[in-house]
Specification:
This protein is α/β, with parallel strands linked by helices. The chain contains 13 helices and 8 strands. It has one domain. A 6-stranded mixed sheet has the order 6-4-7-2-1-8, with helices on both faces. The longest helix has 16 residues.
Length: 288
């Protein structure tokens, strides 16, 4: 069984890989001020890259300054909460029926890619498919030391001006894990691994574009690169955005927040930025 700290990182990566699907052109910033529509205090919205190698990771001063301005922070889920680690355990268990009736040739290909990545094909007897995908995704970052991975949410919480501030969640860990485990079929995994040879270069380019806040570059990278169907992308992004928009107005009404969620959730016609505008809020890009 995977140890808790490593398991926490793995599950975060499962989300990180997916959260950049479907970007659309907008201002080149990942930080927005939310005001107007009767709010007594400003809140903020920040698009995260859930993980990066320590050598690549940095946090913009404007993000640090924003943490100082707000009273509370909200993540998709709070993976620092020990309760969530306990709730997560059943969802990392193996799915023994995952490859039932699957094409044997495609399964052999999947096994070969696992071996190339120093993972035994028997890994599916130990953990869920979502965890396996996240392990493969972590490798595409090519960090010199996997123990030195930086997680944006954890680094935000560690800031001196974040200490003592309450952390809220926009969804439950059980919802998120159920979604990830139900999202992938063996065919999805096969399609993903067919492109695995390009993943290292793709990931390096994505990380650079993210930390440069080059949203147009991210858009160019992500267009037509998704290996999930439009219906599954809807579940992964748009449906969750709509659900969060049912909670955020009440949260902001009484206290100021920094909402830190995967960057792919911010943009597009069904992204959180546009959905907040549709509700009457003013969204101001924080450019520097």
């Amino acid at each position: 069984m995977i140890k808790n700290m490593k398991m926490k990182r793995i599950i975060v990566i499962a989300v990180a890989v997916l959260c950049f699907t479907g970007l659309f052109a907008q201002e080149n910033t990942l930080l927005w001020k939310i005001s107007g529509n009767g709010l007594a205090k400003d809140s903020y919205l920040f698009g995260t890259l859930h993980m990066a190698c320590a050598a690549d990771f940095r946090m913009a001063d404007k993000v640090k300054e924003t943490v100082d301005k707000v009273e509370r922070i909200a993540f998709e889920v709070d993976l620092s909460n020990p309760e969530n680690m306990t709730l997560m355990q059943p969802y990392i268990a193996p799915n023994t029926a995952f490859f039932k009736d699957f094409d044997p040739d495609k399964k052999r290909f999947i096994d070969s890619v696992l071996v190339e990545n120093q993972l035994p094909p028997t890994i599916f007897d130990q953990v869920s498919p979502a965890v396996v995908i996240s392990l493969l995704s972590m490798k595409s970052f090519e960090c010199k030391d996997m123990n030195d991975i930086k997680m944006m949410e954890k680094e935000l919480q560690a800031l001196e001006n974040a200490k003592g501030k309450a952390i809220d969640e926009l969804e439950s860990i059980t919802f998120q894990m159920e979604l990830l485990n139900n999202l992938f079929t063996p065919e999805d995994l096969y399609t993903y691994l067919k492109a695995s040879g390009e993943m290292v270069a793709f990931t390096k380019r994505m990380v650079k574009a993210y930390f440069d806040e080059n949203v147009s570059e991210l858009e160019d990278m992500m267009t037509n690169t998704a290996y999930l169907s439009p219906e599954k992308q809807e579940l992964l992004l748009s449906a969750r955005n709509q659900s969060w928009l049912e909670k955020m107005p009440d949260m902001m009404q009484t206290q100021s927040y920094l909402f830190a969620v995967g960057a792919g959730h911010l943009v597009g016609e069904k992204g959180v930025v546009q959905l907040l505008k549709d509700k009457g809020y003013t969204l101001t890009p924080i450019l520097d």
